[in-house]
Amino acid sequence: MGFKKVSRRRFVGGTAALSSVMVAAPFVRGAYAAGKLSVGFWDHWVPGANGATEKLVKEWAEKEKVEVQIDFITSNGNKLLLTTAAESQAKSGHDILAINTWLPARYAEQLVPVDDLMTQLIKDNGKVNDTVEYLGKINGKWVAVPATVGSQIKGPCSRIDLLKKHANIDIQAMYPAGSPPKADDWNLDLFMKAAEACHKGGNPFGIGLGTTSDNVDSIGAFFHAFGAVLVDAKGEIVLKNDQVRQALDFYKKLMQFLPPDVAAWDDASNNKFLVSGQGAMIMNPPSAWAVAKRDAPKVAEQCWTHGFPVGPKGRFAPFLPYFWSIWNFSKNQSAAKSLLMYLSSASAAEQMTNASGGYDLPSFEKLTTFKVWAEAEPPKGTLYHYPNPYNHQTLSVAAAPAPHKIAEQIYNQGIQTQMAVRYFKGEPLEKTLDWASNEIEGFMRN
Amino acid sequence: MADIAVAGTPGRRGAYGSISRDRRWAMRWSYFFLALFAIFFLMPPFYMLITSLKSSAEISAAQNPWWVFGPTLENYVALLGKNEFLIFFRNSALVSICVVTITMLISVTAAFALARMKFWGSATLATGVFLTYLIPDTLLFIPLFKMFAFVRDTTGIELMNHWWTLIIIYPTLTVPFATWIMIGYFASIPKELDEAALIDGASWMQTLTKIFIPVALPGIIAATIFSFTVSWAQFLYPMAFTTSTNELVLPVGIVTTLIKGDVFNWGQIMTGALLGAAPPLIIYAFLMDYYIAGLTAGATKG
Amino acid sequence: MADIAAPNAAVLAGDRRTGLHKLMQRKSTIAFLMALPLILLIGILVLYPACYAIWLAMLNKSMTKFVGLGNFQFLFKRDTFWDVVFQSCLFAITAVIFKAIIGFVVAHFVHNIPSKGQRKWRGMLLVPWVIPPAMSTLAWLWLFDPAYSAFNWILAHFGIGPVPWLGETGWARFSVILVNIWAGAPFFMIMYLAALKSVPEQLYEAAAIDGAAWWQRIWYVTLPMMRNIIAITALFSLIVTFANFDIVRVLTNGGPLTSTQLFGTWGFKLGIESGDIPLGSCVVLFMVPILAVAASVILRDINKRGSEV
């Protein structure tokens, strides 16, 4: 019994909340909203960002007289993924679990459809982008609600001073705070020239080519910019096309100007690279900037988050949504739905975004102009263009539009980054394509 | 043979011959290379210590990483002030103590039965116990999920996400080796000891508790330390079976709550790693000889 | 010693044949009951899940259909699988060889110095083995960090450019093996030290009288005397190294490309991260026959030990 009390501690928090739960308990109303609910959220890596979620859930719990246990589960070392797999296999665990990118599709059959919630939310908060729909609406049914917490655009974050010094680019003029971007010149050629100049100047771009999500997202956006598709929506392998070849040539050239060990980078490497003051640009949500603000303020003052360069087929930026999903083994599905509705309101979204210092990005159209992005500093306006306020770029995910099961594997195995690394290391292009084609054939299993 | 092999017998070298010049040089070289190896072996823990004494700003500054310019205990204060960290510690301690107790109960009795009271299939069992080491934990954890689901459906007992589940699982890792050590120890005890006891009318259980356990105490201590170290260090199972912050044990707790993919906090990570390594290190510092005896017991009896 | 006791026991046994018979009856029952917790533990929590895993390995990806050995057939056609086989063997064999050599050399040095100081050195040199691997690998990860590598800081003073410790296939394999050697060599050291102490001093004296050089003493006296322990330790270590998970997982997560994936980590990647549990089980299962070969050698040794008892 002693332990049980401790285990509720995270939820209960202060003694005030404790007493109110105690008082509330005897007056539990109705069989539905009442009862217990356990929720597994993504453990935010911006310090303090979990606080808003915790507070909102508490508010809801008090209102609905539901006893909630919250767990914040890190995605590091794929702990969250492992938890999801474990709960799916054991058919028990949390009622609500935060899952990312491909998992709604993977576990679609075990998730409670949330079309009713989504219809209402889209009415309230505006449309969601195509990528969110591709990832969350499976066979015409929404199986999860796009979460504010953890959803992000992994756009470029550049050093104002270094880009000016080495490449003569004024990134603030291209992406002025408070007004639409003037970035028509910001294309792949200019990007390559800047990468070369910064490399020569000793401050290369830090674009990882490992197989973790940051790396895969970046290359995914560049592939989209070339229109390079590996597997089409019907599930046919179409990777032997000129767009893919162009994209690989582009990367082969780019990699000369990147640090030598980019092939081993993980999601933290680019952040460290920026914070250490070595890098002129990385592709990341504002967490790197937030760390720099804490540990290396001089670096933070020079950071500017902006958009991707435009390619032959358009301007694409990687968007990685988190979703809140309800397991079908949950014993309290109506309470779970009620909580998700509560967490998806505009004001809840804004509180979460604020707590994360602008990192979190709601997926709904009307929720991309919160004050926090305009006001974040130093330097003032550094995050203004982070949420893509002018729909300047198309939000995308690597490996789309392939069927989910194939796309997921392409993404998780980092096939695109592996192709780039192989080609860069001197493997003939056609051999690289053969290799990729062979690997992807292996993903067709069902 | 067994007697000669007992570990920790002081070397008999010093007694022989006069220390010639050659010998002295050989000794100097030995010290030199030992120092080199000691540097290699102790460098990572040393670097942990150094990093744990630095502030975040110092860690990200480009300067000599092997020196602490502004030593601070802020990482220790921050970590030990965290409620979660103390919970991890408590869970680890409880799990390890319970696992060690269970392990010793199971393996001492079983080892006694296998070494002294042969029964049908006992030889096969003795080898079978060792063979369990061939089955990697990476293979077992998914079937275990399924079994947990079965247990829940039939009995209503939820095994997922509870630290005490680890108490049930860990013995699979500790019992085989502990049993092996104990079989070795019991086998080296002269046969007339138990025969005499049995003839005097002692039961088998009395023979075990009154005679064998006192005599094999060093082996029992060695197996205890070994089991403790193994259960303290386990990583995959707690990572697979526990999720909530208040159910985690130390190694997984440190890796999951301190490392946040995008944001790195190396000062605290290293502090946590050092504190996580501390209990086995402390036990080892005091009981090193038993620990070494335990490690070498199995092999040197060959 | 046991032999001396035996005749006595036989005489006694003759005297009380019937009583002893009953005792024997009871003895095996009691013995079985005493071993029962062990049998249950291993049966329920190791053998049963292991068989379950074999069954899982024979299902299709969505685990709805039995496909027999289909998954294995599929695996054999994949290049990555053979890479993993190669890497696992390379990793395990190289690491074990170096652990054995370093352990042997260090044990010799410790044995060389006066016994008064031995305890201290032994204590220091065993530290890597005591630290939980998940913790110590974090320290290595930090030492190898691309942006802040403390090794590269030192190397830079000698004009050696930044080494991509975990960034290039060759270096990454080197680093992973290095960390494994670091963590495992002390175990060899301590085993060999115990073995060295059991080599009778007279043998060395005899060799010295024959005028044997130091390497001859090692080759003709030490090694043959230690053969058994070297074999057991190496094989024990081989099992643990083959099944390694933590070190690779924390250090490189199998990268760059898939050049440091081992059976355990790749199986985990396929099974958990890519949601193909049967295929993941297959990969991990593949370790078992390889280890079984190693085991059969160990087994012979254990049986020998059993008969000596």
TrEMBL record, chain A:
It comes from the Bacteria. It holds the Pfam family SBP_bac_8. Transmembrane segments: none annotated. Coiled coil: none annotated. Keywords: Periplasm, Signal. The keyword Transcription does not apply. Residues 1-33 form the signal peptide. It is found in: Periplasm. The keyword Signal applies. GO terms for cellular component: periplasmic space. Belongs to the bacterial solute-binding protein 1 family. This is ABC-type glycerol-3-phosphate transport system, substrate-binding protein.
TrEMBL record, chain B:
Residues 89-287 form the ABC transmembrane type-1 domain. It is a multi-pass membrane protein. GO terms for cellular component: plasma membrane. This is Carbohydrate ABC transporter membrane protein 2, CUT1 family (TC 3.A.1.1.-). The keyword Membrane applies. PROSITE patterns: ABC_TM1. GO terms for biological process: transmembrane transport. The chain crosses the membrane at residues 29-50, 93-115, 127-151, 163-187, 208-229, 271-293. It comes from Enhydrobacter aerosaccus.
UniProtKB/TrEMBL annotation, chain C:
One of its GO terms (biological process) is transmembrane transport. It is a multi-pass membrane protein. The chain crosses the membrane at residues 30-55, 84-111, 123-143, 171-194, 225-245, 277-299. The keyword Transport applies. Coiled coil: none annotated. This is Multiple sugar transport system permease protein. Keywords: Cell membrane, Membrane, Sugar transport, Transmembrane, Transmembrane helix, Transport. It comes from Enhydrobacter aerosaccus. Residues 85-300 form the ABC transmembrane type-1 domain. It is found in: Cell membrane. Belongs to the binding-protein-dependent transport system permease family. One of its GO terms (cellular component) is plasma membrane. PROSITE patterns: ABC_TM1 (PS50928). PANTHER family: BLR7065 PROTEIN, SPERMIDINE_PUTRESCINE TRANSPORT SYSTEM PERMEASE PROTEIN.
